[in-house]
Amino acid sequence: MLLAHSPGLIGDAGADWLAGVNELGDVAWPPAPIRTERLVLRESEARDRPAFVELLASPEVNTYLGGPRPRDELERALPAVPGRFPGGFVVELDGKMIGQVLLRRATEHRPAAVGKIDLGYLFLPRSWGSGYAAEACAAALDWLDSVLPGEPVVLATQTANTSSMRLAAKLGFAELERFHAWDADQWLGLRPPAVPSA
Ligand SMILES: CC(C)(COP(=O)(O)OP(=O)(O)OC[C@H]1O[C@@H](n2cnc3c(N)ncnc32)[C@H](O)[C@@H]1OP(=O)(O)O)[C@@H](O)C(=O)NCCC(=O)NCCS
């Protein structure tokens, strides 16, 4: 995660969240929905708005992301279709949004991460503990490998966020450095580019 809060969800009212990130690059967007064994990854739609409010207002989801936002503020400030930008995947289970996977290029970050694509993920607590985040992130990374082959991906998370640290390891991220920012110890990992098959 690039910043204290997840970027790209709030729109104008949360433009600060967009500092330090820009478009993914030269990629056709949106792709056709990506289907995994249990999930669908797709672009955000208006019907996802209540789930975005739930995600951003949840104290559990935002424990390591700067804290929850007041629900009434979110109801007012979120755009009609939140989280719609290249690299912003809504993750759907049985037709309903359960989380979000974000792939965004970092323009302001640790020096080792500037210019690289950053992976972020947020899932509703009721979906935790079933491997959905791992399944969705792996699919998003596979998609990235197919559209931008050879791209390294970075991931920053608080070291205290043990679920996120475990997920990063499962996805093949290796530690680049630890640092202190936003009043917390942070971990920066790198997923090396996939080796192209001969
Ligand atoms: C980080 C976060 C996405 C991790 O979610 P998660 O559900 O724990 O992650 P995974 O998808 O990897 O699932 C792993 C768990 O599912 C379990 N599991 C159950 N069935 C499984 C299956 N079929 N396949 C894989 N794992 C399965 C695993 O045993 C593991 O459980 P454990 O945590 O008790 O060891 C979630 O905690 C979250 O949204 N947090 C708030 C947002 C946040 O902090 N994001 C990080 C900022 S980048």
UniProtKB/TrEMBL annotation:
User: Coiled-coil intervals in this record?
Assistant: none
Alphabetized Gene3D superfamilies for the sequence: 3.40.630.30
One Pfam family assigned to this protein is Acetyltransf_3
| InterPro entries xrefs | Acyl_CoA_acyltransferase (IPR016181), GNAT_dom (IPR000182), N-acetyltransferase (IPR051531)
Ranges of residues in domain N-acetyltransferase: 39-193
Concerning PROSITE patterns, the annotation shows: GNAT
Protein name as it appears in the record: GNAT family N-acetyltransferase
Organism (species): Kribbella lupini
